From TrEMBL:
Residues 1-10 have a biased composition (Gly residues). It is found in: Cytoplasm. PANTHER family: PROTEIN REQUIRED FOR HYPHAL ANASTOMOSIS HAM-2 (PTHR13239), STRIATIN-INTERACTING PROTEIN 1 (PTHR13239:SF7). Residues 377-736 form the Far11/STRP C-terminal domain. The gene is strip1. Its main location: cytoplasm. Belongs to the STRIP family. This is Striatin-interacting protein 1 homolog.
Length: 756
């Protein structure tokens, strides 16, 4: 049967075998959830009573200024609400309402009296952000509704949509894109200068503005294909979105030997379970930020891995291997027909293979020559031919080579033709504040405060300003409702921040690799890697199946239906959905961010090892969703060679899952760790070298005033130089005699030395 809910459902296979088998989560990963779900998350349940007040104000004051649009009170179902919301929004855009809203929002941001009042208040509530919330609600409704295309839209609406999209990404509002203004609000809030800002609404509007102006994951794939065509690179070996959607979660059934062993050795299983639970408790007490060397504590590391297997695990079991038992025919292993990904090889991999082969068989090297194979055995020729067949040149590699040419030939290289796209304008807008880590630190501070693993601290920022009522609850039912609201509020913040970071990283990487590296390095320096690991150091299944929602209070359901009486039992039961769409979406986004930060970065990969991420990531494999498992397995693959032989031996099912689901890089010795296992790593040296390349790129492309003076034209004509009029300040002219005496007459000049 299929149970649908929140854009996804649960497909339960009636032929499941084994007590530990759990169903696959049929989760459709997309840019956003359904329109109604995204709209409902804009409003907290504490704001519910304001709907009636807003309707009354609209009917009395606003209708006289617009062409009589209807309100939700005149609708009988949610579909009608959606229809009239879309109609009214295009009506508002047609008369230029959004520009007026931006101006009003700017006035509220610059309202120093409200900021100073909020800073002095001991407790901030919804009442402190009423005007801001109204403006942000309208702006979010406009952006969220217009960014979702509808085939039934009129031609004039499509023209309005295209114009609005272009305006939103260009510096028309206050000489900067709307996203830069919202980033400024995030920074002002995180520094404590505006604690009354409704940060959830700001982050949601920031996310949807970036999504609308830059494009989502489908658009990213199309941009990537187009850029490869422009650079005359071979087409992509496959459509990654389609491949991931066709993958199934790894869930091997319990084998007959496991079942027989459990029946034959109950006492041993109980003692092992008790021992493992003790180890798990010890692991949970450890600080995930403790940077101990994983090699010095290899035994403890392995114990912790085993401790994570106390619950049935969909990927592997670390129990003692039983003696060989003949399996019945129904339990025969079925091998996959083919691997989902085409293997890839970098030019650097081919060079390294040839260098090692020449050193081994001939005794000399030829540098970067990948064509000369004289003197090498026939099998090496075959290997080189296979490697070249799967050679993949990325857009980033071409961009790096072009940047090196610009740096080598600053005069003869010519001017770079930079397309002023929406992502380029956004990068130029946030570039001045990135060196101070302002935007990245602000987002990560809010993410830390919203993470379920974070403990309340006196110095942490208050992210609940737009969910707490003026008067705190006095009954148990009100307290339960507020508790659900607060947890839901935090989950939505995590969802928005994870989506913003992932979209920016992906778009920057396509626009220029050094823009991506600049943002990624700021995230790394702001401790993004341990923060994400800390987020996953929880019962991730509980987080994904959390029921922090009250469906009857969601907008627009709550304004078109009569509300039933809420009870403590109904609040505890939650909704009927088998998993929470936003929480699974957030987890996948955070895993993708972690992959992007560590890919091809040896020092950052070693950070995963040092922070002991393997047991944390293994627990995330319990979530039977193919896309999430894929990104977990990717993170495990890059560090398997550094985890030691014992870890690989004890986790063969994980190794098998990596082989089946993750793309293969030919010549990558990930499963054995024989090539670079003992290579020393210097985090500071690697990051400094990368930072130098980034700064040269930013200086060349954006800092025209600070260009290298050695490459500026020089005027050598004496008449021209002396004929220039130089404006001297008044104080210098008044004290000219004193200056001559001090700087000229009183200083002896050795003409002989000067002439030499």
């Amino acid at each position: 049967m299929d149970v649908g809910g929140n854009g996804g459902g649960l497909a339960i296979n009636n032929k499941q075998r084994g007590m530990s088998e759990s169903p696959d989560l049929e989760f459709d990963y997309a840019d956003t959830d359904k329109w109604t779900a995204e709209l409902s998350e804009l409003y907290s349940y504490t704001e519910g009573p304001e709907f009636t007040i807003n309707r009354k104000c609209f009917e009395e004051d606003f209708r006289s200024h617009v062409k009589v649009p209807c309100t939700f009170a005149e609708c009988s179902c949610e579909a009608e609400v959606q229809h009239w919301v879309r109609y009214n929004i295009f009506l508002l855009l047609e008369v230029g309402t959004f520009s007026a809203l931006v101006e009003l929002l700017n006035m509220e941001i610059d309202n120093s009296a409200a900021c100073s009042s909020a800073v002095r208040k001991p407790a901030i509530s919804l009442a402190d952000s009423t005007d801001l919330r109204v403006l942000l609600n309208i702006m979010y409704l406009i952006v969220e509704t217009v960014q979702q295309e509808d085939s039934a839209d009129r031609p004039e609406w499509r023209a309005i949509r295209d114009t609005f999209q272009a305006e939103l990404g260009s510096p028309l509002y206050n000489n900067e894109p709307i996203s830069v203004m919202l980033f400024g609000m995030v920074t002002k809030f995180s520094t404590g200068h505006a604690p009354h800002f409704p940060m959830k609404k700001v982050l949601l509007l920031l996310w949807k503005s970036i999504l609308f102006t830059l494009g989502g994951f489908e658009q990213l794939q199309n941009i990537k294909v187009g850029k490869r065509e422009e650079l005359r690179l071979p087409p992509l070996p496959e459509d990654s979105i389609r491949v991931i959607r066709s993958m199934r979660a790894a869930s091997p059934p319990a084998s007959a030997s496991d079942l027989i062993e459990q029946q034959q050795k109950p006492t041993l299983c109980v003692s092992q379970s008790l021992t493992k639970q003790d180890n798990l408790d010890a692991f949970n007490e450890k600080d995930p930020y403790k940077a101990d060397d994983a090699r010095d504590e290899e035994d403890d590391h392995d114990d912790n891995d085993n401790a994570l297997e106390t619950e049935p695990f969909p990927i592997e079991r670390d129990d003692v291997m039983p003696p060989p038992i003949p399996h019945p025919p129904s339990e025969r292993v079925s091998f996959p027909k083919g691997l989902p990904w085409a293997p890839k090889v970098r030019e650097k991999d081919i060079e390294n293979f040839l260098e090692s082969s020449r050193s081994k068989f001939i005794g000399y090297t030829l540098g970067n020559d990948t064509n000369t194979v004289v003197g090498l055995p026939r099998p090496i020729h075959e290997s080189i031919r296979t490697l070249k067949q799967h050679k993949y040149v990325s857009i980033a590699e071409i961009q790096i080579l072009k940047e090196e040419e610009f740096q080598k030939t600053p005069l003869s290289g010519g001017e770079e033709d930079v397309e002023m796209s929406a992502i380029e304008l956004l990068y130029q807008g946030i570039l001045p504040s990135l060196p101070q880590y302002m935007y990245m630190i602000a987002l990560l501070k809010i993410l830390l405060a919203a993470a379920p693993t974070s403990k309340a601290k006196t110095d942490s920022i208050n992210i609940l300003a737009d969910v707490l009522p003026e008067e705190m609850p006095t009954t148990v039912l009100q307290s339960m409702k507020l508790g659900v609201d607060v947890n839901r509020h935090k989950e939505i913040i995590v969802k928005a921040i994870s989506a913003v970071l992932l979209l920016l990283l992906k778009h920057f990487k396509l626009n220029h690799i050094y823009q991506f590296e600049y943002m990624a390095q700021h995230l790394v320096f702001a401790n993004c890697i341990p923060l994400i690991l800390k987020f996953f150091n929880q019962n991730i299944m509980s987080y994904i199946t959390a029921k922090n929602s009250i469906s009857v209070l969601d907008f627009p359901h709550c304004v078109v239906h009569e509300l039933p009486e809420l009870t403590a039992e109904s609040l505890e039961a939650g909704d009927n959905n088998q998993f929470c769409w936003r929480n699974l979406f957030s987890c996948i986004n955070l895993l993708r961010i972690l992959n992007k930060l560590t890919k091809w970065k040896h020092s950052r990969t070693m950070m995963l090892v040092v922070f002991k991420s393997a047991p944390i990531l293994k627990r995330a494999l319990k979530v039977k969703q193919a896309m999430m498992q894929l990104y977990v397995l990717k993170l495990l693959k890059v560090q398997t060679k550094y985890l030691g032989r014992q870890w690989r031996k004890s986790n063969m099912k994980t190794m098998s899952a990596i082989y089946q689901k993750v793309r293969h890089r030919l010549n990558d010795d990930w499963a054995y760790g024989n090539d670079l296992d003992a290579r020393p790593w210097d985090f500071q040296a690697e990051e400094c070298a990368l930072r130098a390349n980034i700064e040269r790129f930013n200086s060349r492309r954006y800092d025209k005033a600070q260009s290298n003076p050695d490459f500026l034209p020089v005027d050598n004509c004496l008449q021209s130089v002396l004929g220039q009029r130089v404006e001297l300040p008044e104080d210098f002219q008044m004290n000219y005699d004193l200056w001559l005496e001090r700087e000229v007459f009183s200083k002896p000049i050795s003409w002989e030395e000067l002439l030499q």
